[in-house]
TrEMBL record:
The lineage of its organism: Bacteria, Bacillati, Bacillota, Bacilli, Lactobacillales. Signal peptide: none annotated. This is C39 family peptidase. Residues 727-856 form the Peptidase C39-like domain. Keywords: Signal. It comes from the Bacteria. Residues 54-66, 100-113 have a biased composition (Low complexity). InterPro entries: KxYKxGKxW, Peptidase_C39-like. It comes from Candidatus Limosilactobacillus merdigallinarum.
Amino acid sequence: MNSKTHYKMYKDGKHWCFMALTLVMFGITIYGSQLTGHAAMQATAGQTVATPSVTSQSNASSAPSQPFVLASGDQNQTDPATAQSTANQQEAVNNNRVPQDTTTQNNQAQANDGHLDSYSMSQSQNGQIQLHATGWHASGQSNDDPYRYMIVYDNTDHREVNRQQLHPQERPDVQTAYPNVDNSRYSGFDITIDLPSYLATHSLSLVSRYSNNNQSGEGNHVDYWFGPLVMDNQNRAHLDSIQSDGKTVTVSGWHASNAAADKTYHYVIVYDQTQGRELARQEVSFGSRSDVLKVFPTIANAGRSGFSATFNVTPEYVNDAIQFISRWTDDPAGNGSSTVDYWFSPINQSNQGHLDSVNLSDGHVRVSGWHADDVSLFAPHHFLIVWDVTQGRQVASSEADVIASSDVAKAYPDLRTAGQSRFNFDLGQLNLHAGDHYQLVSRYSTSADGNGGSGAYVDYWFDMMTLNQSEFYIDGWTPAADKLNVHGWMASDQSTSKLYAYAILLQDGKEIARQELTLTNRPDVANVYPGLYRSLQSGFSVDFAIPANQLTGTLQLVLRFTDDPAGNGSSTVDDWINNLATNASNFDQVNYNNNQVTVSGWHAANAANGKTYQYLIALDAGSHNELHRWQLTAGQDSLQRDDVARVYPWILGSDHSGFNVTLTDIDSIRHKTVIFIHRYTDDAAGNGNYVDAYSAPVTIDQWYWIGNAHYHKNDQGVIDYVLNNADVIGQLPELPTGCEITAVTMMLRYAGCDVNKVQLANEMPRSSDPNQGFVGSPFTNYGYGLWVAPGGVAPVVRAHVGTADIMTGCSIQAIKDKLINRHLVCVWQGNMHGFGTHTITLTGFNDGGFFYNDPWTATKDWMSFGTFYTRWNADAQRALSY
């Protein structure tokens, strides 16, 4: 803390006395809002832009910290009779003398307060530094010391550097706050003071003085100190723009620093970081920048800190890392021992890009994407080049404008050019070759000629496409008695050279018709397949004039692009729609209940056209002899089946192909396994010309056989009994510890495999891990730990039937499902026959338990579900099937 002593006069009766006053210099206290903003542009990476306050307040030690108030609380009153004339007041304020205040009552002689409202630094065109300040200073001694001065004090060198008469300004607001201080109405000031340029970087204070000396400001006086003033001593700059036509580049921006206030030369230098040398320099004139001055009011040269310099573009600008330098110096050549330099962030050489889309839908090549590289600041000509990788040649090149890309700028804020890097361009109809791989090159070049290759350039290579796509879709079929209509769309990259489109219809592998197609607009297809060549012109609708009853067998449709006008050619692109059945059916259900059978399903056949009679015929599933036939009547046949029409739209009448009939005369089929035939015929008796559909074998009763398996269905049609009549095989005497492989032998033999237990025992892997193979030997006569888990014997099962299903931990229902499908199941049982583990073969079930073949006893047996589960659970619920 610094102090300064002043002498204050006061009256003691008729005598003037002097009192020493010590003023303590305080640091500035900032009040109010800080000014924030930018000059032309916000600072970029590597730059620091501070926003100093331009409003401040200082309290001197001689002034009260709060507005002075009379202790008595009395209010001053202005006597109009004694008020001074306005003319006299005006005369006083035209110089540095405050008017004699005769109206203020109860003047507080010791009052001394003030406020520095604002201050700023500037520099004139001839380089003169000027300090401008506004504020107020009210003193109770102003009638005795009426002459006002402003003194600039250099805190750095501890000396006064300038003083200037201060013309009083009216401040009614101060008078309102200090009504009992003489001349508070004229306490304001607004002053501009010239300063030496070197002071721009010093710490300064302002001293407002009331003095009784109208010549020098000395004599008896009252001072109020403001400061130290907060000056911006940062080196600030911004590179606003870099613009190039490929031959020259112009850089513009601003550079402001108080350290440069005494520097009269301003240069812009181009520095090559890659080569570590200067490329060029240029002296620039002082450019007016009121925007910079507004943001940085305490930098002297902020108002004339602008610059613009133009340089010739050389290859180094594109190929090397370039950095611009702004220099203030006192050397006419731009050097000097004392320079103020600002190194702008190097030009970002990050090369970024993305190809958003390639659209070939109308035969033109349209590309959209973006390519950002700040090298483009020097290489402004943007080209798009299509390159055939397969053939190693350029297909096309065009100069293409880049457009705004705020999304890219957001993603890459360090790239100056990211905000103007997008392209959306139509390259036209190009000579593309089907099957070739293509890349797109985005190029920024200094040259506008050709593809930009004659200048300095930077490229970004995008993987564009391989012309090998082919897509089609059949939207619908419309069958009629005399023709078949097919409509949909087809598109292929091969159509770049194969210009003819055909639809060809085959029957049982032989062509029966072909039609050349005139492709039509399909914008819906183009939206989904924009990268497919001419997908916009892909629609077709074709009629094959063939009667429906001649479209029998299996149909195929070929959609072809070819270079042969007749639809042939040695090189065609074909899409096949195969296996189009013309006679399709399904028996949805065959239910036996209450001595009647209900049969329902559907039968769609082109050959049914013209056949007006429908029959249901029952055949013996074994002998295939007819057992009975029933003619279907109205309400039983030709039922609506939209579901069938959706699956078989090309079959005429598929939408009314359903049938549903209840048979009551069933004595001829009761307790039999039968095959039903649904027949369309032109004969009232059910013979003549006909087309048939066959069901799978079905059992007409609750008890029935399928192969060697005997089944029972309950009243709800659910199988509640099955017994697979599998041969029982005993493990003894050959395999005393081989129950597992013996059980597997029974399962495989029932599956039709010609194997025996000894053969499989020898095939079974051996391992110390039962999950990998048999532990020990199954031929050994007893012993502890001689066994194998499902995983260890599964390879044997897989070798003979192709699959193995380790069912360990499965549900009881899963086991039942295997048995219903005539797959036996080997299960591991704990604590059976006195063994810790034993394996049996399950062959069936009823409502109470499982049937099984036991390899130890060589018998067929049954156990309850409860007993089974207890034993099965005791051996980790192990199970194996296929």
